[in-house]
Amino acid sequence: MKGIKYQFTGTPWQYNPPKGWYFVNLPKDFSEEIREHFKKEEEGWGRLKATAKIGITEWKTAIWYDTKGQTYLLPLKVEIRKKESITTKKNIEVAIWI
Length: 98
Hints:
Layout: E1 5-10, E2 13-14, E3 22-25, H1 28-38, E4 47-54, E5 57-66, E6 71-75, H2 78-83, E7 92-97
């Protein structure tokens, strides 16, 4: 069982280009709901285990709570970006299970 599913469209962005990590923000309303129900399951630095799917690629990962933006961030590893041709200029459909 994967848990509760959240599906959204987001625009990837890069922290500290050109070599920084890539992320996509979860919508604020989803982030509020997730934090309300799962905060007690967070590990250090607001890390919450999740399963993500973009296109046909599904993987086990974690989302991280960003206190400044009041939203969770999904990191996008190089492997995932290559498999799904993800760039910072293209919206992506994301599914997350908590």
